[in-house]
Design goal:
- By secondary structure, the chain is an alpha/beta fold.
- It has two domains: 3-287, 3-Layer(aba) Sandwich (Aldehyde Dehydrogenase, Chain A, domain 1), CATH 3.40.605; 292-482, Aldehyde Dehydrogenase, Chain A, domain 2.
- Helices cover 37% and strands 22% of the residues.
- It is built from 17 helices and 25 strands.
- Strands 15-18-19-14-13-21-22 form a seven-stranded mixed β-sheet, sandwiched between helices. It has a six-stranded mixed β-sheet with strand order 10-9-8-11-12-24, with helices on both faces. Strands 1-5-4 form a three-stranded mixed β-sheet, covered by helices on one side.
- Helix 13 (412-415) links the parallel strand 18 and strand 19.
- Helix 4 packs across helix 5.
- The longest helix has 28 residues, at 133-160.
- It starts with a helix and ends in a 13-residue tail after the last helix.
Length: 542
């Protein structure tokens, strides 16, 4: 047994060693779910939630029981769909016909209630998915900031729509109207933030929601259900629990879902879309697979490249769709890069999520360590090696980062999205090699270029912007700021998410028009001055 293995065994605490302020006082056994404005009681089967955090016991390391949640069936899912459809009522319901200002007031009320639950949600983020306290707090705060930014952007859109247009003898007012019932499914790695970057704009634009929490990161939404119930009309937000392959197909096959929003795998998204009987009526907003590449030119600032690539490949253990998941490095500087990169990895602090300045934490997916080991063994069989000390060492849910070199196109790590702390490094002699990789990849989200020669960088930018949706220069791949567009080409995304784009993704431009005659002007003036319509209005939101 290696020294690191012994250290990793000691990494996991005894229960008495967990700081009091971060302990789970008792497991949270959720037996309620939100449908049609009611917190309904669940008496059926439940799924236990075990933390990636283990504790030392007399019988060895044991995962901590966080709690459990309902395993509902297709029956409950269809009841939730009925509630959402009834609340929308073909666009005639209370929520879709409510004014923008009234919807914003409801969302502001919800946000205040959400903030009151910050400590509870942050603690569950740590325990359910092993995210560090600092990153869990950041995810919560960023989500609140996103909600306020979205509200501000919606005000801007509404203000721009408050005027009438007069063209070629036609008077018209153009506003954005909702699409209908939205099925929202978020990811486990950012179960709060990335879920809410679709959920919040969908709600604000007047849609009604079916919300299915991710498999890992389910319980952290439970403290917020009462706020959803109290702050929005009944049926606007409805929750779905259970196995995805049991509860989701019936919803899609019903043809009554108007928008599918999923942050997950392209394989699942393809299957779900094909289930819908009226695919032309289905709008999809999808954040899918990615295999973002870092390209290190021979003239790169090596200290900067190493710093950004470590952050890009190992933030939250590499469990980000925007992570750098493969690094191409010019062969002439590969030895220097590998030495410095491995040294930087060795300096990363590993430990429990609540520890200060911790960088590497246990993995939430029980089967992930075995898959990562499989990828490493496959790479070794095809000529690569783990070049950093202790790389790939595993104890229970903790997997120490492995830097694998030289990776080639025969290996799983070359194409498959590992979504974990294994960093494949590919040497190249000709810049066409990484360009060809990006061109032939099934994915097209982002790429990072590291170099100092402006001619080389410019020559890379022009072909790459037509292959991916964001080219980063001397910086890691990332989503933010949230006002920037976030999307992907090929199998990486459908639709664009940013504060403004998301509002547009969950709505459609709608026009009310009439001929410019005295009688029609009088009709419009009467409707507006008497506030008879929520749509036809010149009211200005400050």
């Amino acid at each position: 047994m290696s020294n690191l293995t012994l250290q990793l065994n000691d990494l996991f605490p005894e229960e008495s060693q967990i700081p009091e302020e971060f302990r789970l006082s008792q497991p949270i056994h959720q037996r309620e779910y939100l449908v049609n404005g009611e917190m309904r009681r669940w008496e059926g089967n439940a799924s236990d939630v075990y933390s990636p955090v283990c504790v030392r016991t007399a019988d060895g390391l044991k995962r901590v029981l966080v709690g459990s949640y309902p395993i509902a069936t297709e029956k409950e899912a269809m009841e939730a769909l009925d509630a959402a459809e009834q609340a929308y009522n073909h666009g005639r319901g209370e929520w879709p016909t409510m004014s923008v200002a009234e919807r914003i007031a409801c969302m502001e009320k919800f946000t205040q209630r959400m903030i009151e639950k910050k400590q509870e949600v942050v603690r569950l983020l740590m325990w359910e998915i092993g995210k560090s306290l600092a990153d869990s707090t950041k995810e919560f705060d960023r989500t609140v900031e996103y909600i306020y930014d979205t509200i501000d952007q919606l005000k801007d859109i509404d203000r721009a729509s408050s005027r009438f247009k007069m063209e070629q003898g036609i008077i018209g007012q153009i506003r954005r109207s909702p699409l209908g019932v939205v099925l929202c499914m978020g990811p486990f790695n950012y179960p709060l933030n990335e879920t809410y970057t679709t959920l919040i704009p969908a709600i604000l634009m007047g849609n009604t929601i079916l919300f299915k929490p991710p498999k890992h990161g389910t319980l952290l939404h439970y403290p917020l259900l009462e706020a959803f119930k109290d702050c929005f009309p009944k049926g606007v937000v409805n929750t779905i629990y259970g196995r995805g392959n049991s509860v989701v197909p019936g919803l899609m096959q019903s043809g009554r879902i108007n928008v599918l929003t999923l942050i997950g795998s392209s394989r699942v998204a393809d299957q779900l879309k094909k289930m819908h009987p009226k695919v032309n009526r289905l709008r999809a907003v999808l954040g899918l697979d990615a295999k973002n590449a870092g390209i290190i030119l021979k003239n790169a600032d090596m200290d900067l490249a190493v710093k950004e690539c470590v952050l890009g490949s190992l933030s939250f253990n590499g469990q980000r769709c925007t992570a750098i998941k493969i690094i191409f490095v010019h062969r002439s500087v590969a030895p220097v890069f590998l030495e410095r990169f491995s040294a930087a990895v060795a300096k990363l602090k590993y430990g429990m999520p609540w520890e200060k300045d911790v960088n590497l934490t246990p993995l939430p997916e029980p089967n992930k360590p075995a898959y990562l080991k499989e990828c490493i063994e496959d790479a070794k069989a095809n000529g690569a090696a783990v070049v950093n000390e202790n790389g790939g060492t595993q104890v229970e849910s903790f997997f120490y980062p492995a830097v694998v070199y030289p990776v080639n196109n025969k290996m799983k790590l070359y194409r498959e999205e590992q979504f974990g702390p294994v960093i494949p490094v590919v040497p190249f002699d000709d810049i066409e090699e990484p360009i060809d990789y990006v061109i032939n990849s099934d994915h097209g989200q982002q790429v990072s270029i590291f170099g100092t020669n402006t001619d080389q960088i410019a020559n890379l930018i022009d072909p790459l912007v037509n292959q991916v949706s964001r080219v980063n220069i001397n910086a890691q791949c990332q989503r933010g700021p949230d006002t920037f567009p976030f999307t992907g080409r090929k199998d990486s995304a459908e639709g664009t998410l940013s504060v403004e784009d998301a509002l547009r993704s969950f709505s459609i431009r709608t026009l009310v028009a009439t001929k410019e005659t005295p009688d029609n002007k009088e009709i419009l003036n009467d409707i507006i001055e008497s506030h008879k319509s929520k749509f036809l209005s010149t009211k200005y939101i400050f």
